[in-house]
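From the thread on structure requests for the teaching lab: each student submitted one protein with a one-line request. Submission from student K.M.:

"Model 2-methylcitrate dehydratase from Novilysobacter avium, tokens only."
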Amino acid sequence: MSQPDSRSAIRPAPDQPLLDVADYVVDYTVDSTEAYDTARYMLLDSLACAALAMEHAECVAHLGPLVPGAELKDGARVPFTGFQLDPVQAAYNIGVQIRWLDFNDTWLAAEWGHPSDNLGAILGVADYLGRIAQQEGKAPMTVRDVLGWAIKAHEIQGCYALENAFNRLGLDHVILVRLASTAVATRMLGGDRDAIWSALSHSWMDNGVLRTYRHAPNTSPRKSWAAGDACRRAVTHAINAVRGEVGCPSALTAPTWGLYDVACDGRPFTFERPFGSYVMENILFKLSFPAEFHAQTAVECAMQLHAHVKQQLDAGGVDAIERIELETQQAAIRIIDKTGPLSNYADRDHCLQYMVAVPLLFGRLTADDYGDAVAADPRIDALRDKMTVSEDPRFTRDYSDPAKRYIGNSVQVFFKDGSHTRKITVDVPIGHRERRAEGIPVLMDKFERAMRRRLSAERADRLMTLANAPTQLESLAVTDFMDLFSN
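Reply posted by the TA:
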């Protein structure tokens, strides 16, 4: 192939990936009942995560306008607060709330991520536009409209993640939150096909943030607000594009200066499947434990072993244990296999050994268990020191199999008296599609408990009525919906 003339100012046609996303957002009609049903549960689950995050002062400190007093009358509401903000800062706030506890939905493939992160942008823009519409005597979007945008955002982020491992380039998965949120927010704001690909070109030209804050020895709370930051940037790109900002058509493919050459070692993106509604239909919910998803089944294993281990600990203390064998997928080893001192909660909720030690000791794993008070128990680190972590090739194969997408783990404890527990293996967590029937009641309980901890009994009752009446909930104006969560 001939090389393009780097001196030529002739603008090429837009890169095909930009057009493919724009065409999907503009033209594709979601007609999957399963996708809409799952999206409805995803919305409830995400708001439960936001409510639970409000119990943590570190999260609350991020909320509100960028500078004191910079609120917007009749702006987008931030759930469980009295803030009314411009859609850019609202996207950040809501994104931070949903993502803070690492308890929202998950997508695992070549790249990992949490597609419900995009709700920061979607809800912020939807409520902002809805309040403007009402002032003009027009009808705002409905909750069903929000679900439709969420399905498309999930699909964009998830389909890119299937075969494109940004983590292997050192880049964080929120690059795909910014991509998906940019696409749908531009359309929500009235942008056409050209505005969407233009906005996407600017999203890609931002490149990506480093994964440094997700890995030892630099794990930090930034991982809890990084997705909100991506939502904020996405809405900025969307607003600019709708105002007519000129895009860069070869943002991906330009020699030397394009994303492929700068960040992807010259390799173009590859795709397993066309855009549809596959990702929402197969999304993973975190229902039982606020834990990095590769560890969810390991925590289930540890919970099953707790009673046996507790007997030994009561009789002989931690010294009664000789070793603990963990077998997991290759991805978990890369992300959460961690030794040495853990300096903060962000370190702990991304440490496989910590997330197994706590349920072995206490028979539970909650957000509070990542705090300094619980972590000060010397038995936790003593158990971590006794753990070995190895890859089970079957777990890795099943993890990558598009027909399975399992997240298997096994745990077995060996004692110094020569006895041992059973080897407990769990292939799929309760939030997996294969356990959806088992998981939905748990999700609904998670939602109800979270609402009753943050809202009045009257509002919580109203929300539970709506949550159990899908048609009524989906027909509700998004502004009325958001009002139910506002102080």
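TA comment: Residues 33-53 form the longest helix (21 residues). Strands lie at 76-77, 84-85, 107-108, 112-113, 321-328, 387-391, 409-415, 424-426.
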